[in-house]
């Protein structure tokens, strides 16, 4: 069967039947595909660099890769990092040698180990293939630097509610199998909530509900019906499927909520499901900084050591280290003030642009720079009482701008006292 021909086989999941067959049908990700956007410009030139598509599940990574291949009308090879090894990679590369300009799409590329990625590197360097990788993981963590440096990384965003509702309506309006029923979409909140922005999950959940309610006429889809039918599914953890992000979300929110009992339960669910211990440890690292921060700086140290430990020892012993870190973070005081500060600061940067660095703060390694006033008037803090000088450190137009506010934990109270002694008049600590 041609990969890009419309498929009406009702044995396939609804999400597969609804997969766009041409670029004009692709919805969402307009920052990448709209006129003038990066990918649109490449396709206008009938070429594409090697790229990595990074984003959450069900937002169009695989579909976009396939549509790029269809648009360029070049040989298109696919590999799944879950099942392919070095042997399969080399076999595909050998086929590509006989078909210049080929595209190789690798789904879940973050699951390729170093040897598998090394096997790709030469072909990408030589231009033998153009690589399109799809990943739900930060590629800077999981893709070797040599390969990453030869690829453009494009980030796909979660789909908006408007886009998801449009997909539901289109499925009911155009899918031949669903059209045999009279379906009333009375409520959509549960469908949207349970799918979590994942279009594939949304469409397959819609079909599951329809099949569960059939042959009732009309089939009325309500929040209550969706919740009831969804809860009847198996609770088995699937590290490659829908529950992956739901359970890690519950895990992190339990830590944030200072509930070690719930956190350790969700940890056990992931361990029993065979989740990658490094994936869990990375989330603990993020939580230690985002949710605990300066309320207990030791949390970040422990989380960093946890990541190093599980990387070295793996399962089964890694579960002990993960459990220790999980309970420690859950039982730690919480603060997200640093997280809020950097978000606010980045927003300020976007609003104000590249403001000049004040002259007295600039580096002056050359005579000319000194003549231009670089570093002139800078007050070296260590030469002043309490090793502090109340000089201006912000750009001129941002004088007195306050971005960081310590929280209420004992550790942050000490930070506040330190800042009050120095900046009370300027920043109001």
Give a structural overview.
By secondary structure, the chain is α/β, with parallel strands linked by helices. Helices cover 50% and strands 7% of the residues. A five-stranded parallel β-sheet has the order 2-3-4-1-5, with helices on both faces. The chain has a two-stranded parallel ribbon with strand order 6-7. Helix 13 packs antiparallel against helix 14 (260-272) and helix 13 packs parallel to helix 15 (277-292).
Briefly say what this structure is:
This protein has 20 helices and seven strands. The chain has 429 residues and is an alpha/beta fold.
Assembly type of the shown chains? single chain
The average pLDDT value, as a whole number, equals 86
Q: Please report which band the strand proportion falls in: under 5%, 5-15%, 15-25%, 25-35%, 35-45% or over 45%.
A: 5-15%
What is the ordering of alpha helices and beta strands?
HHHEHEHEHEHHEHEHHEHHHHHHHHH
First CA to last CA: what distance? 68 Å
Shape: globular
Number of separate strands: 7
Question: Counting H and I runs of at least 4 residues, what is the number of helices?
Answer: 20
- The structural class is alpha/beta
Q: Which ranges are low-confidence, i.e. pLDDT below 50, for 5 or more consecutive residues? A: 1-6
SSE layout and pairing:
Layout: H1 14-17, H2 30-33, H3 38-44, E1 51-54, H4 61-72, E2 76-80, H5 86-97, E3 102-107, H6 114-125, E4 129-135, H7 139-142, H8 145-148, E5 152-155, H9 161-174, E6 183-185, H10 189-195, H11 199-213, E7 219-221, H12 223-231, H13 243-256, H14 260-272, H15 277-292, H16 298-313, H17 318-330, H18 337-352, H19 367-371, H20 410-427
